[in-house]
Automatic annotation (TrEMBL):
This is Chromosomal replication initiator protein DnaA. It comes from the Bacteria. SUPFAM superfamilies: P-loop containing nucleoside triphosphate hydrolases, TrpR-like. InterPro entries: AAA+_ATPase (IPR003593), Chromosome_initiator_DnaA (IPR001957), Chromosome_initiator_DnaA-like (IPR020591), Chromosome_initiator_DnaA_CS (IPR018312), DnaA_C (IPR013159), DnaA_dom (IPR013317), DnaA_N_dom (IPR024633), DnaA_N_sf (IPR038454). One of its GO terms (biological process) is regulation of DNA replication. Residues 327-448 are annotated as: Domain IV, binds dsDNA. It holds the Pfam family Bac_DnaA_C. Residues 1-82 are annotated as: Domain I, interacts with DnaA modulators. Residues 354-423 form the Chromosomal replication initiator DnaA C-terminal domain. Plays an essential role in the initiation and regulation of chromosomal replication. ATP-DnaA binds to the origin of replication (oriC) to initiate formation of the DNA replication initiation complex once per cell cycle. Binds the DnaA box (a 9 base pair repeat at the origin) and separates the double-stranded (ds)DNA. Forms a right-handed helical filament on oriC DNA; dsDNA binds to the exterior of the filament while single-stranded (ss)DNA is stabiized in the filament's interior. Residues 141-277 form the AAA+ ATPase domain. One of its GO terms (cellular component) is plasma membrane. It is found in: Cytoplasm.
Length: 448
């Protein structure tokens, strides 16, 4: 370590970085309870409350220890690692049994993910309406329910809001939330542990009243887990139990997802969530400001909302960085402070990515016009240009397949899917195509 610093100063600055990265809820759970004890050479010892030690330590082992090292490297100009110590003597862990295998633990829902805290806008109002109906009558309407859309648009929030609402109205209900990766890991662990564990796994997932599964695109190409979920799906729906899932794309777009699963999902209802419009983004920031007890002028919130239009997660991340500057650096809640934060995030650089900009850049590259891209012409060069433009729209924006099809002359979603699949396969096998796509992406983002 080359920069002198006290343990309190180091931990305070690291906390500010974690607050920006994680947000208030996760920060208060996994970071705030820790206290600095000693700072010696390359190690900061942190005290962990005994009543929540295992949960905190597990989370730090999975993710936060590496974040800490990176933050400390920037703050202290040297390598410092965290050393977590439980405040009270650690009790001996019980020997593994069917009762304490990981997959038999109840999956907690985030209490902040409620319908009341979900900001409704034009991009999510339909998905919200269906979610409300599912929560009111689980297993009776819209079963299964699949929410799909780009990263950070609120799919998990809406799905867990269903669980929280159902839990409030029916306290005795057995509700299970798991990511697709959790389901895979639980299934794998049950196979490793033997027949008894396999039976316990099936009991855990097939005896629920409501099953919530996040990010099913994770099962792409994983045949065994797909087969297991297919069987679980059949048992639950046969018994009138509700299934809700999220994905970053339609089932037909998930590579190597079994057709029988796709058909099961399509038998229910699928709703997409799109990027929030400006009024929705402002409302999201107002909610965050109020929930965190801050008074921030509307013109400041509007500035942040105008500059960040990609997704809710990015918007919240910028807000938390802004909030950290107010709380930990005593900055004023002004447009100047917001501009500084946006500059640090490189928000002011580059062009706004829209379907129209992508169409223009691609049309110029292929010496065509936007009208040509939207036309019904099947000339080879024009078809290639149209496919490339559709592919880039799909990868650089959060537009849904139907919306992309409409933007390209009223084509249906299957045409867009065909185009994106074709260009994806070509880019993976042809380095020149990948180089061309990278160049177009750079031009679209930065005008270079």
């Amino acid at each position: 370590m080359t920069k002198p610093i006290t343990k309190e100063e180091l931990w305070s600055k690291v906390q500010a970085e974690f607050f920006t990265k994680l947000g208030r809820v996760t920060f208060s759970t996994y970071i705030e309870p820790l206290k600095p004890i000693t700072l010696e050479d390359t190690s900061l010892t942190l005290s962990v409350p005994s009543d929540m030690a295992q949960d905190i330590i597990d989370q730090w082992d999975r993710e936060y220890s590496m974040d800490f090292v990176q933050f400390a490297m920037t703050i202290a100009d040297g390598f410092i690692k965290p050393d977590l110590q439980i405040a009270q003597p650690k009790t001996t862990a019980a020997a593994p049994t069917l009762d304490n295998l990981p997959f038999t633990r109840e999956s907690d829902l985030n209490p902040d993910f409620t319908f009341e805290k979900f900001v409704i806008g034009s991009g999510n109002e339909n998905a919200y309406a269906v979610a409300r109906a599912v929560a009111d009558e689980p297993g009776q309407v819209y079963n299964p329910y699949l929410i799909y859309g780009g990263v950070g648009l609120g799919k998990t929030h809406l799905m867990q809001a269903i669980g929280n609402a159902y839990a409030a109205s029916t306290p005795s209900a057995h509700i299970k939330y798991a990511t697709a990766e959790d389901f895979l890991n639980d299934f794998t662990e049950s196979l490793r542990a033997g027949d008894g564990a396999t039976a316990a796994f099936k009991q855990e997932y097939r005896s629920v009243d409501l099953l919530l599964v996040d990010d099913i695109q994770f099962w792409s190409g994983k045949e065994k887990v797909q087969e297991e979920f297919f069987n679980t799906f059949n048992v639950l729906t046969k018994n009138g139990k509700q299934i809700v899932m999220t994905s970053d794309k339609l089932p037909t777009e998930i590579v190597d997802l079994q057709t029988r699963l796709t058909s099961r999902f399509e038998a229910g209802i699928m709703m997409d969530i799109q990027k929030p419009d400006l009024p929705t983004r402002v409302a999201i920031l107002q909610n965050l400001s109020e929930s965190d007890g801050l008074t921030i002028p509307n013109d400041v919130l509007e500035l942040i909302a105008e500059k960040i239009d990609s997704n809710v997660r990015s918007l919240e991340g910028a807000f938390h960085k802004f909030e950290a500057s107010l709380r930990y650096m005593n900055k004023p809640a002004t447009k100047e402070t917001a501009q500084q934060i946006l500059g640090d995030l490189n928000i002011n650089q580059g062009f706004k990515i829209t379907v129209e900009r992508i169409q223009q850049v691609v049309a110029d590259y292929y010496m065509q016009t936007i009208d040509d891209l939207k036309s019904s012409s099947r000339k080879k060069d024009l078809v290639t240009a149209r496919h490339v433009a559709m592919y880039l729209t799909r990868t650089l924006t959060n537009e849904s397949l139907p919306d992309i099809g409409r933007a390209f002359g009223g084509r249906d979603h299957s045409s867009v899917l065909h185009a994106t699949t074709k260009i994806t396969e070509k880019s993976e096998s042809d380095p020149r195509t990948k180089e061309m796509l990278d160049a177009l992406t750079d031009e679209i983002k930065n005008g270079k």
